[in-house]
Amino acid sequence: MFRISRLNIPGMVEKNFYSARFISNVPMYDELKKFQHAMMNNCLHVFTREAHKELGPIFKLPIMNLVFIADPSMSSDLLGTSGERYPKTFIPESWEIHAREYGVKRGLIFLAGEEWWEQRSRLNPLMLKSAAITKMNPSIEKEASELLKRLDGDSSQIQKDVYRSVTKILLELFIGTSKDFPLDQAIERVIIDNSGLFRGTTQLMFNPQEHFERKSPEWMMFIGHVDGILATLKQGIRASYKEKLEHGVAAELFKLGTSLEDVEKIVCDFLLGGVDTTTTSIMWVLHELGQNPDVQERIRAELKTVCGDNPCSGDVLESIPLMKGLFRETSRLYPAVPFLSRIISKNVKVGEHILPPGTNVMVSNSAMAFNSTNFPNPSVNKPERWIRDNDMPKDLKNDMAASVRPFGHGVRMCVGRRVAENSLLVLVSNIVQNYQVSAEKAEYATKMIGVPKDKIKISIKPL
Ligand code: HEM
């Protein structure tokens, strides 16, 4: 899910120069200054879009063994069945240093090889199967109604309100509620530490090892937030364990014999992977509703037909294709995860190219999303592009699907996908059923995730 962090360029240039050259039939982009500028200015998506235009669907950099691809079928080769059995993804180097130097054990995001698969195969049925999600829906629906009460016609704090709802849904689903772990207090602490941690990771993107060695203020702030979030979750999970709670993913994991320590690290990584991505995605969908009043009207009409006067619930989500199309279309234009990554450990064939072990590959979501052959008028948000159309050529359908993968693809795809989708669709639908949403145009930036450059300005008016 996460992007490049090894930007300690001088050392890396020499160490990693060989491999990108080794893939001799892949064009080289050698204006490194432009790449560095894009990294520092949060516009890597623009850099890759332009570089792909110049060099085609695949190119390499002379540093970091880095290869970018922007072709749906190459992306499927990399992420799908011809990729690896235990694929590995990038994580920010600051997180790696923290885990290594402080001996902190971590969950799925950090794991590789058989250890990763052992944990992942235990979690898939608990997180992705329909039966598990049906059990989770009541918590999501309850929080949608709480969110409406909190909003009460006032959008000045809407991003905070949504952040709070997402955090609450995830804490309740993963840990459950216990008398020794009052959720409302925990939420405030998780919000402070989670946002601090993401801010810190961005600050430590360059030379994190050096920050660690001199214990810079940025490093100290970063580890304070990591330790804070771990401590809060530990408290909740231990309470769930002690009280032998029946509900929550943690309780299910205990039943399967997972150790207390493993459950702690799994849940911590769920929150790291889930809170900011889901909140940001919701904010972009609200932005798109506000920017496209005609789409908003049509979605409201769809919800009226399907739900009548009832609040949208988890069990109607298969019957609201326009709303689902809006989420897909918004993920195309403003992906919460701007690049999918793989670190290759064996030769992998993508298109005509064999990428050798040690290659770091990034799939450029934004470059594929603006391909006007697959998406005519690519900058227009058209949710109906995603509504099943049997007359559409199969190749086009496949290319469209492979160009927009908000949750990644293959065995390493997002484990929280169903929770995230259901939370987003239910929360946003409830807002649309009650409010007219307007939004000022916001600009997209690539930081740790795909965020608005400045805060998204949303206003809501009761219907
Ligand atoms: C709209 C919200 C979300 C988006 C866009 C998103 C996106 C992604 C993406 C793109 C990946 C990498 C997939 C790949 O490399 O193929 C990923 C991995 C992951 N996500 Fe999400 N995610 C979201 C919500 C969540 C939630 C709610 C959770 C909580 C359970 C979560 C937990 C994780 C974890 C633990 C991983 C690592 C999985 C592994 O390595 O096996 N995500 N996510």
TrEMBL record:
Keyword Ribosomal protein on entry: no
GO molecular function terms listed in the Swiss-Prot or TrEMBL record: heme binding; iron ion binding; monooxygenase activity; oxidoreductase activity, acting on paired donors, with incorporation or reduction of molecular oxygen
Alphabetized UniProt keyword annotations: Heme, Iron, Metal-binding, Monooxygenase, Oxidoreductase
Binding-site residues, heme: 414
Cofactor: heme
The keyword Transmembrane belongs to this UniProt entry's keyword annotation: no
SUPFAM superfamilies listed in its UniProt record: Cytochrome P450 (SSF48264)
PANTHER family in the record: CYTOCHROME P450
UniProt similarity note: Belongs to the cytochrome P450 family.
Protein's name in the database: CYP315A1
Taxonomic source organism: Eurytemora affinis
